[in-house]
Amino acid sequence: MGRLWRWPGWHWLHSFFGMGVWLFLFFLFLTGTLSVFGHEIDWLTHPQMRADPGEAHEKLPWGRIYDAARAALPAEVEIVELHRAASPLFADSVQIRRPGGAESLLWVDPYAPRVQGETSFWSFHGMISQLHKRLMLPGRWGTLIVTLFTLPLIAAIIAGLMLYRRFWTGFFRRPRLSGRTRAWASDLHRLSALWLLPFLVAICLTGLWYLLEVLGLDAGYPPEHLIDPPRAERLPEGFDGARIDAAIAIAQDRLPGLAVTDVVLPRWPQLPIVVWGNLTATLVTPWSNTVHLDPGTLEVLGTHRGEELSVHMRISEMADPIHFGFWGGTASRILWAVFGVMLCALAVLGLVIHIRRVAAMEAKRGRNRSDLARAWRDMGPWGLGAWGSAALIAAGLAMMVLRLMR
């Protein structure tokens, strides 16, 4: 084991994998950090998303929200989903679909049911999360590209730990905050890496799982319980908010304690109404707890609980809460955001260390390059890592601009 720790190749591996894909990893760290509170950033920039509870003690029934949205829309515009945020300061969102397939969100005040405005799906949160997940590329290619970068990240972490002998003794080692740049940057880099280690393990394991899913190990979702024969219309004639409230009451009777977060209406005649929300299972998404109902008769066609999922599906459901930090509500999201900022700083410190080390070596040889040129050149052989990362980032940003122009 001692020989393994002393192997001189660890330093080369850490630099090769860390610097080779530094630019793209930093892009992922930054977009992931921003996406943690992306909804709140949208809330700050879009007044129509805000709600003021005033003296109200609770939000109005879902049916009132549906009726308010329906009354504000032309008959040809379809309501396909209603969503209620946990925060009392957020308005309820109503997803709508116009003829031709264009979709957007209406925002309805949940305390005095009135439509406050409309926003595109491609808000700040929508853009930044899609850039992080798949570079906004169509199909699975974007997800495949992003998740493949988990592999060099894991390699850089392992090599870094092997470089730092007896790393478990360094959690409370005071860094040098004076002297040469390389010295204090190295100390801060090691210290922050140690404290980020549990977070990095969580991010890497879930990133690997996403990679396996895109390669064919996707667990899928519980069946939709299709209606056979399908109805003549998407929704029965006279469908209104009272039917929504009745469907929710039946769903909560079938799954006592269900805290409803979404009501999904059928997009096609053979699909049911789906009511989902939070229940008793931990580390699952709300759509693990669902009740499927016939829109015409409100007959229950099927139910699913988080505890009843297969092991494969349960692992799949755990990935998002852990990776994006919402496993513990607001507290865990704050923690994940802090970790994300630290991770961005860790990457910058690693870059500074490399630049200072290479600058010292080049000074002995009489070479003189700018720090930017030095860093760019060292990102992969002949700078290929930098150029490749820049090309991927540019492709994602170009797709974002195209989305905004539609």
Q: Give the H and E element order.
A: HHHHHEEEEHHHHHEEEEHHHH
Q: Rg from C-alpha positions? A: 25 Å
Tally the beta strands: 8
Distance between the termini: 58 Å
Strand order of the largest sheet: 4-3-2-1-5-6-7-8
Q: Strand portion, in percent?
A: 5-15%
The assembly state of the depicted protein chains is: single chain
Shape call: elongated
Largest sheet data:
8 strands, antiparallel
Helix-strand makeup class: alpha+beta
Tell me the helix content.
Answer: 40-55%
What is the count of structural domains? 2
Helix count equals 14
Low-confidence stretches: none
Task: Kindly report the average pLDDT value.
Answer: 92
Written account of the structure:
With 406 residues, the protein is α+β, with helices and mostly antiparallel strands. It has 2 domains: 2-37 and 126-219 and 324-405, no CATH class; 39-121 and 221-310, no CATH class. It has helices at residues 2-6, 9-20, 22-36, 38-45, 62-72, 124-134, 141-148, 150-163, 181-217, 241-254, 311-324, 329-365, 371-377, 384-405, and strands at 78-83, 92-97, 103-108, 115-120, 259-264, 273-278, 290-293, 300-304. The chain has an 8-stranded antiparallel β-sheet with strand order 4-3-2-1-5-6-7-8, with helices on one face. The radius of gyration is 25 Å and the shape is elongated. The N and C termini lie far apart (58 Å). The model has no long low-confidence stretch (mean pLDDT 92).
